[in-house]
């Protein structure tokens, strides 16, 4: 399966009730050694689910959080830090330098994905999937 096909599959798996819509832009950055995910918009959608996968292992997310009550509006996340109003499934696995990851976010009616690769110097490379 190509990376583009994998991305579509993961996107649909991350948001099964949205009809595989992809309309949320996801920014991936690094600040002080922490990987951060955000939805950059004037009026950001309230994300109620965030999942990070290693592209090489599409079966097991390295981090998965979702809104416990769906009333908390969160649009900015730090890897492995669970925001108030969210629950974590399992523990966040350490991100490996040079490993390609996919982050999928969702809310009712919308989803978004982005690929990223952490560097040894704390940088983040946003890498498009090969098709």
Feature tags:
9 strands; Lipoprotein; six-stranded antiparallel sheet; globular; signal; three-stranded antiparallel sheet; 131 residues
Your description of this structure?
This protein has a single domain (3-125), classed as Immunoglobulin-like (Sandwich), CATH 2.60.40. The protein has one helix and nine strands. The model is unreliable at 1-18 (pLDDT under 50). It has 131 residues and is mainly β. The strands form two sheets. A six-stranded antiparallel β-sheet has the order 6-4-3-7-8-9, covered by helices on one side. A three-stranded antiparallel β-sheet has the order 1-2-5, with no helix packed on it. β7 and β8 (110-118) form a beta hairpin. The protein is globular and about 35 Å long. Residues 1-19 form the signal peptide. Keywords: Signal. This is Lipoprotein.
Molecular shape: globular
* Elements, N to C (H/E): HEEEEEEEEE
Strand order of the largest sheet: 6-4-3-7-8-9
Q: List the total number of helices.
A: 1
CATH topology: Immunoglobulin-like
Low-pLDDT ranges: 1-18
Strand content range: 35-45%
Share of helical residues: under 10%
- CATH level-two architecture: Sandwich
Number of individual domains: 1
For the secondary structure, the number of strands is 9
Report the major sheet.
6 strands, antiparallel
**What is the rounded distance between the termini?**
9 Å
Query: Structural class from helices and strands?
Result: mainly beta
Taking all Cα atoms into account, the compactness measure Rg is: 14 Å
**What would the average pLDDT be, to the nearest integer?**
82
Assigned CATH class? Mainly Beta
Protein name: Lipoprotein
Organism: Sphingomonas alpina
Keywords: Signal
